[in-house]
C-alpha cells in the first residue's frame, strides 16, 4: 500500500475538487448550446466523407466545400420547414372558415361507401349519422373539449418556433466551424481517448464515428425512399400539391414522425371526395411504406456498423425514448462504446496468464502452463489408469536447468 501524508491527501482532494468544479462550470456554460452542438457533431460526422469528396472536386478548397454543404443543409432542412410553416400560416384563415361553416351547418349524412370499409366502416358510419342528426349544437358539444386541447397545444408550440430557428442557426454555425477544422477536433478527441483508455479508447472513438454514420445512413436513406414512394402514390391518385406534401413527408420521416400524417390525411381526403378506389389503393401503399421503416433502417444501420442487431435496435429505440430525436444517434453511440470496452475487458481477462500460488518456486507458473499445453486430452482425462505414470515427472523450470548446466560445467573443469 502507498503511504500518503495528510498534506498530500488534502492537496489531491483539492485538485480533484477544483477540476470537478471547472468541468461542471464548463458544462453549465455550454448547456444552452448543447442540443445544437450534438446535432452539429452528428451532421458533420455523418457527412464527412461527402465533404472530402467535394473538396477534391473543388480544387482542394475546403471553404468552397463547406459553403456547398451548408447550402445543401439549408435546402434540405430549413427550406421545407419554412415552407410548411408559411403554408400553414397562409391557410389559417381558410381552415378557420371551413371549421366555422361546419359548426353552423352541421355535418351532412355520411356517404354510402363509408359503411363498406372493413372492420371500422359500420361503426364510423353510425357515429357520423349520430353527429349529423344532433345538428350544429351537438357537433360543437362533441368537438369542443378536443378543440380546446388542440388549440392549447398549438399555441404552446407556436411559442417554440422562434427557439427552433435559433437552434437551427447555431447548428449551421457550429457545423461550418467543424467542417473547416474537423481534423484538428478529431485528433484532439483521439488523443484524449488514448490518454484515458489507451488503444481501447481510440478504438471506441472510431467506433462512435462509425455508429453515427451508420445511423444517419439508415435514417436518411429510409426517409428518402419513403418520401419518394409516398409522393409517387399521391401523384398517381390525384392528390393536390404532391411536391409540397413529398417535401413535408421527408421532413417528418427524418424527424422520425413518419409519413402517416400526410398519407392518412390524403386517404381521408380521397374518401371525402367520393373516390373510394383511389383511397383504398393509397391506404394499401401507405401500409407498405410504413413497414419499410421497420425493415430497411435496421438493415442499413447493421451494414454500416459491425454491431449486433439487438444492440442497434436497443440503442435507436431507447435513445429516442430517452433523449428525443437526437437520441437516435446518441443511443447507439453510447451502447456501441460500452459494448466495445466491455468486450475488450472480458477478452483481456480471459487471455491473462494463470497466476502462481503463493510460496511456489520461480518458474512454477511457466512449467505448469507448459505441462498443460503438452498433455494430450486422452492422457489427461478419462477413466482408467493414467498413462502419465511411466513418463518422467513435470519438466524442470528454466532456472533449474541453467543451474544444473553450470554445475556440470564446473565438474568437467575440476576433472581436467
Description:
- The protein is mainly alpha-helical and 416 residues long.
- Helix content is 80%, strand content 0%.
- The chain has 15 helices and no strands.
- The longest helix has 55 residues, at 182-236.
- Residues 362-404 and 412-416 have low confidence and may be disordered.
Please give a quick description of this structure.
This protein is mainly α.
Detail the topology: elements first, then pairings.
Blueprint: H1 6-30, H2 34-57, H3 62-90, H4 92-105, H5 121-158, H6 161-180, H7 182-236, H8 242-254, H9 260-272, H10 276-304, H11 309-323, H12 327-351, H13 364-374, H14 377-380, H15 398-415
Helix pairs in contact: 2-3, 2-6, 2-7, 3-6, 3-8, 4-5, 7-8, 7-10, 7-12, 9-10, 11-12
Organism: Pandoraea nosoerga
Biased composition (Low complexity): 357-408
InterPro entries: AI-2E-like (IPR002549)
Bulk shape: elongated
Number of helices: 15
Order of helices and strands: HHHHHHHHHHHHHHH
User: Please, what is the average pLDDT?
Assistant: 75
Helix content: over 70%
Q: Look at the helices and sheets and give the structural class.
A: mainly alpha
The major pleated sheet works out as: none
Question: End-to-end span in angstroms?
Answer: 54 Å
User: How many strands in all?
Assistant: 0
pLDDT under 50 segments (min length 5)?
362-404, 412-416
Strand content: under 5%
Rg over CA atoms: 35 Å
Biased composition (Low complexity): 357-408
Membrane topology: Multi-pass membrane protein
Transmembrane segments: 12-30, 36-54, 63-89, 161-182, 214-237, 243-264, 276-292, 312-345
Subcellular location: Cell membrane
Amino acid at each position: 500500500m502507498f503511504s500518503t501524508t495528510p498534506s498530500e491527501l488534502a492537496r489531491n482532494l483539492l485538485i480533484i475538487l477544483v477540476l470537478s468544479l471547472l468541468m461542471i462550470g464548463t458544462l453549465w456554460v455550454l448547456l444552452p448550446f448543447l442540443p445544437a452542438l450534438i446535432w452539429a457533431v452528428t451532421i458533420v460526422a455523418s457527412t464527412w466523407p461527402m465533404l472530402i469528396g467535394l473538396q477534391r472536386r473543388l480544387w482542394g478548397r475546403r471553404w468552397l466545400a463547406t459553403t456547398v454543404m451548408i447550402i445543401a443543409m439549408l435546402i434540405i432542412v430549413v427550406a421545407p420547414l419554412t415552407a410548411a410553416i408559411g403554408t400553414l400560416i397562409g391557410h389559417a384563415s381558410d381552415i378557420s372558415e371551413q371549421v366555422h361553416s361546419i359548426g353552423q351547418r352541421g355535418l351532412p349524412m355520411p356517404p354510402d361507401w363509408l359503411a363498406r370499409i372493413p372492420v371500422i366502416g359500420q361503426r364510423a358510419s353510425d357515429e357520423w349519422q349520430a353527429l349529423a342528426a344532433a345538428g350544429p349544437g351537438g357537433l360543437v358539444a362533441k368537438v369542443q373539449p378536443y378543440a380546446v386541447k388542440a388549440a392549447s397545444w398549438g399555441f404552446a408550440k407556436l411559442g417554440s418556433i422562434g427557439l427552433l430557428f435559433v437552434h437551427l442557426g447555431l447548428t449551421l454555425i457550429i457545423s461550418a466551424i467543424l467542417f473547416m477544422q474537423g481534423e484538428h477536433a478529431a485528433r484532439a478527441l483521439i488523443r484524449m481517448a488514448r490518454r484515458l483508455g489507451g488503444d481501447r479508447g481510440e478504438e471506441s472513438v472510431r467506433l462512435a464515428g462509425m455508429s453515427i454514420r451508420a445511423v444517419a445512413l439508415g435514417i436518411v436513406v429510409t426517409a428518402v425512399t419513403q418520401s419518394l414512394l409516398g409522393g409517387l402514390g399521391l401523384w398517381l391518385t390525384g392528390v393536390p400539391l404532391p411536391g409540397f406534401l413529398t417535401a413535408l413527408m421527408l421532413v417528418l420521416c427524418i424527424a422520425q414522425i413518419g409519413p402517416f400524417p400526410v398519407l392518412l390525411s390524403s386517404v381521408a381526403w380521397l374518401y371525402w371526395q367520393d373516390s373510394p378506389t383511389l383511397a383504398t389503393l393509397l391506404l394499401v401503399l401507405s401500409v407498405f411504406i410504413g413497414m419499410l421503416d421497420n425493415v430497411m433502417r435496421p438493415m442499413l444501420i447493421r451494414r454500416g456498423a459491425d454491431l449486433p442487431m439487438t444492440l442497434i435496435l436497443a440503442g435507436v429505440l431507447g435513445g429516442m425514448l430517452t433523449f428525443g430525436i437526437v437520441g437516435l444517434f446518441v443511443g447507439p453511440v453510447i451502447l456501441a462504446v460500452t459494448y466495445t470496452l466491455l468486450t475488450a475487458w472480458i477478452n483481456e481477462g480471459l487471455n491473462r496468464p494463470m497466476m502462481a500460488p503463493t510460496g511456489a518456486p520461480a518458474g512454477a507458473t511457466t512449467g505448469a502452463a507448459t505441462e498443460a499445453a503438452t498433455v494430450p486430452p486422452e492422457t489427461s482425462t478419462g477413466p482408467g489408469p493414467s498413462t502419465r505414470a511411466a513418463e518422467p515427472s513435470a519438466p524442470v523450470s528454466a532456472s533449474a536447468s541453467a543451474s544444473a548446466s553450470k554445475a556440470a560445467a564446473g565438474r568437467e573443469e575440476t576433472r581436467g
